[in-house]
Amino acid sequence: MKRATRPCCTDGPARSTSPTARPSESDGRARFTSFPFTKNKQQNPLQNHNEEDFSQLPYDVLLRISATFNLPNIRSASLVCKSWCQAIKPLRESMVCLKWGKRYKHGRSGVKRNLSKALDYFLQGAALGSTLAMVDAGLVYWEMGRREKGMNLYRKAAELCDPVGQCNLGISLLQANPPDPEEAVKWLYKASVTGHVRAQYQLALSLHKRQGPNSNLQEAAKWYMKAAEGGYVRAMYNTALCYSVGEGLMQSHKLAKKWMKRAADRGHSKAQLEHGMCLFSEGETMQAVVYLELASRAGEVTANPVKNVILQELSASRQDHAMFLANSWLALPSSSSH
């Protein structure tokens, strides 16, 4: 059976995630509550933003931490805590902007979807220093077709060491006109070493396609493997291909089958086709039909002829059981981003 050796295609920009809670000190214990909003917050939530101080820890915790401090230590700790409290205050406000931006972007919590309003809130959060808001504003600009503005915001987040911003900037540079693969690989590498699985996959893909100054198959296979181990389905499929043909990894049918099945079980249609064909060649006709049926439903038209040939060899009861297994199949969870 001839296997495809072409790696999966480039992903779109990654989406950021953000915290939606903050600590409360009303009872002296560390706990989290959602941001309070008044009835008029929808018009301008920042006007009535709760100004309570959530920086204090319970006294017994502070005493335990500082019990061995000498006078210089105590003075330093006091200055540091004061500086942190002042520095983080704008970021606390930016989280309110981020929350409202997401509401308008997705049409949640009683507001209608409005990209323009979402962008306004994300830009406010970005101006307050939040890399999460920079990434989200960049995504909105990207959706609007204003790619240069989106890339500028990705770059700001990337320069502040945000892995999603670094990943999105790298992908954007690959899709730019003209593309800049050398700089793209630089930013994808920065995100990859933090464990960002989408960046790891994109870095491997770039190296596999021989983009960038240090491209090689061994390095590409290494990053495919890291992303696959992190749960990234496309990387699982490409890892299986590398093992199958011996590109960057020692050729191994056993390991190729293992990673192909993992990708197939998580909904990768090409992996379902490949794994179904592999099972058929090994005489596992019942399971082969299930995977080929799943691949066919996902749009892999080449799965149908082989599936139909196998079905003719099965009894009616086995055919029904195979379709029952396909109908009751559920994909295993996977990771789309870090």
How would you sum up this structure, described in words?
It comes from Capsicum baccatum. InterPro entries: F-box-like_dom_sf, F-box_dom, F-box_motif, Sel1-like, TPR-like_helical_dom_sf. Residues 35-48 have a biased composition (Polar residues). Pfam families: F-box (PF00646), Sel1 (PF08238). This protein has helices spanning 59-66, 71-106, 115-127, 131-143, 147-159, 163-175, 181-192, 197-208, 217-229, 233-245, 253-265, 269-281, 285-297, 303-313, 316-327, and strands at residues 22-24, 31-33. A hairpin with a 6-residue loop joins strand 1 and strand 2 (31-33). Helix 4 packs antiparallel against helix 5 (147-159), helix 10 packs antiparallel against helix 11 and helix 11 packs across helix 12 (269-281). It is elongated. It has 15 helices and two strands. It is mainly α and 338 residues long. 41% of the residues are buried. The chain has a domain at 267-337.
Counting DSSP E segments of at least 2 residues, the number of strands comes to 2
- Given the C-alpha coordinates, what overall shape results? elongated
Number of helices: 15
- Rg on CA atoms, Å: 26 Å
Quick check: average pLDDT?
A: 86
CA distance, first residue to last residue: 35 Å
Biggest sheet descriptor: 2 strands, antiparallel
Spatial strand sequence of the major β-sheet = 1-2
Order of helices and strands: EEHHHHHHHHHHHHHHH
Strand content: under 5%
Low-confidence stretches: 18-43
Helix content: 55-70%
Structural class: mainly alpha
